[in-house]
Amino acid sequence: MSRSEMDERGWEELDIVFVTGDAYVDHPSFAMAILGRNLEAAGFRVGILSQPEWHDAEAFRTLGRPRLFFAVSAGNMDSMINHYTANKKPRSDDAYSPDGKAGRRPDRATAVYAQRCREAFPGSVVIAGGVEASLRRIAHYDYWSDTVKPSVLISSKADVVIYGMAEAQIVEVAQRLQKGGTVRDLRDMRGVTYLMGKNEELVPMPKSMYEAGTPSDDTKELPSFEEVKACKRAFARATFILHHESNPFNGRRLLQRHGERILVQNPPSLPLSTKGMDDVYDLPYARSPHPTYGAARIPAWEMIRNSITIMRGCFGGCSFCSITAHQGRIVQSRSSESIEKEVDRLEGTKGFTGVISDIGGPTANMYDLRCTRPEVEAKCRRQSCVHPTICVLLGTDHGPLKKLMRSVREKKHVKKVFVASGIRTDLAQRDPEYVRDLANHHVGGILKVAPEHAHPDVLKAMRKPTVEDFDGFVRAFEKASKKANKRQFIVPYFIGSHPGSGVEEMIELALYLKKSGLRPDAVQDFIPGPMDMATAMYYTGLDPQSMKPIKVARKLKDRKMQRALLQFFKPENYFEVRQVLKEAKRSDLIGDGCECLIPLNPPREAILARRRGADEMVGSQGRSSGYRPHRKGWKKPGPKKGN
Fold it and tell me: Residues 352, 354, 357, 358: is their CA dihedral positive or negative?
């Protein structure tokens, strides 16, 4: 991270310089650590510019010109999601920065960092990657500007975008450039996106891609940037095609015209084998922040420092989630031997008290699950293996996972192993013993799961299981907890304002919560992240798969209403919920009956909350709150009638 560290190693120059929007934490949950350690293992000299000052190019000269290339990433999150809430308000903290301090990276950091690299060292090779670049690699909808933007290759002027998990590609890029290749020699690689020059011709796909399963009709053109910007149906169609071509075994090369230039996206990279996953996670990570941070806290690291990643990827295909788009739809799992070695290395490390905070991944109970018919998997274009129903060819045996969890929790230096990753409830119910193991050994009183909604139309748009499935899991978990003589609870997560969800659907969700006795303290507002299927629904008002219209809550007022209905039981939401119910002609839900959502008369807390809100609004507009007796013509107000 510094010239002095280069001098200590006797390095006059670096082969690769990473630029990242995150603090540098050498832990396998952080992308820069994984990629840097993989390059180091391949014999390359790597430097990391973490959260550099971006207002000019000087900080980007700190480590000198890299011999091979700059590798640029916004960090573990899209910088706009990192910076702003669903209501587009600035966040007050940043979990990936020292002491959680916000403002350490720019908006749309990939483009800014790449441009500064060019300014610092003109002519240098710039490779962009990470979540932000991956999900903005084609023309995409940007929620924060409410516009369709071109590929990040246009705004960043990077030579290539490596999309997805990039361990294999980044090493291959380094090796090719090491041998004297140019950026044009990277164009036959899987998992890369690049721009062709105005007068260049498209070259044939290499034979190796056909051998891996790429179809002979290997290229498909998306609607152009100009088309998707002008026509919402074209945008929805482009989104569907992109996701339809996401299987690495049969995904085709995609083209998208941006003016006179053509953007080329090669097929996705192939999933890592078990050995490949082991090689990635067996590297000598320090499992701590860089020493230069001293005593500063890095919240994201503190949360995962004693966690163990056992798999990656997800075949759930939830329409609002970017995991499948970035990590791939095929689950890739480590061997139990590799996982247990990592657990053993925790013994004696600073801050380890014998408690493993999480053993999982994007979905904890997808470990070692995949299609039982590889020849079918190679041809399948289904975007979810579990929706609308679990595919009959999907292996759902939790045996390897149960064996792994038992081996880890029985180690002498391990006191407790928690499962804090997401649980896919429909899969879990295929194995009652797995649910019993969870309840007996891996839950510390609370298990977090994400049913997300209760209305069937919204769940269909989300590609989530039915609410009846969630209820079945709750019953199974509560039964297992009772049998284990443990008082444990499920904390469900729900999303408001997701496409498909209007007033009627949110009222049904509120009624479900009332009936079930659930009072969610933490709820989420839908954030349209770039390239997600649900984002296309939000922007276009169309389901990209069926091209049928779908309900969308676009106005801030509507989004606030949905959030209020999710927490109808909070006094501060009383008046908003009452207004919504009256407008929806559901006054039958206002009263003192058991079936009602809110009482007939507002509770005192609701009146006080409304008064505080009015005072704050008046104060924010630059006027003093309350009465102003000194004002000319002022009269003391009389008693108010009614509420």
Answer: positive
Question: How does DSSP assign 498-563, residue by residue?
Answer: -TT--HHHHHHHHHHHHHHT---SS-EE----TT-HHHHHHHHSB-TTT--B-----SHHHHHHHH
Give pLDDT, residue 340. 97
The sign of the dihedral angle between the CA atoms of 300, 301, 307, 311 is positive
Query: What CA–CA distance (Å, rounded) separates 305 from 27?
Result: 8
- Look at the alpha carbons of 71, 76, 81, 82 in this order and tell me if their dihedral is positive or negative: negative
pLDDT value, residue 251 = 92
Nearest-CA neighbor of 17 among 42, 40, 43, 46? 46
Cα 225 to Cα 140: distance, rounded to the nearest angstrom = 9
* DSSP β-bridge partners for residue 333: 311
Q: Which residues contact 407 (CB under 8 A, 6 or more apart)?
A: 336, 340
pLDDT tens digit sequence for 105-158:
999 999 999 999 999 999 999 999 999 999 999 999 999 999 999 999 999 999
Chain Cα centroid distance, residue 10? 39
How many Å separate Cα 475 from the centre of its chain?
Answer: 29
Structural domains of the chain in order of their starting residue, each with its CATH number: 3-194+260-265 (3.40.50.280), 306-563 (3.80.30.20), 570-627 (no CATH)
- What is the 8-class DSSP label of residue 366? G
Q: Are 317 and 463 in contact (CB under 8 A)?
A: yes
Half-sphere exposure of 112 (CA within 13 A, CB side): 20
CB 48 within 8 A of CB 37: no
Per the CB < 8 A criterion, the answer to whether 152 and 161 are in contact is yes
- Distance from C-alpha of 206 to C-alpha of 210, rounded to nearest angstrom: 7
- Per residue in 291-347, pLDDT (tens digit) is 999 999 999 999 999 999 999 999 999 999 999 889 999 999 999 999 999 999 999
What's the rounded Cα separation, in Å, for the pair 473 and 424?
10
Mean model confidence pLDDT for the chain: 93
Question: pLDDT digits over 255-278, tens only?
Answer: 999 999 999 999 999 999 999 999
Q: Which residues contact 389 (CB under 8 A, 6 or more apart)?
A: none
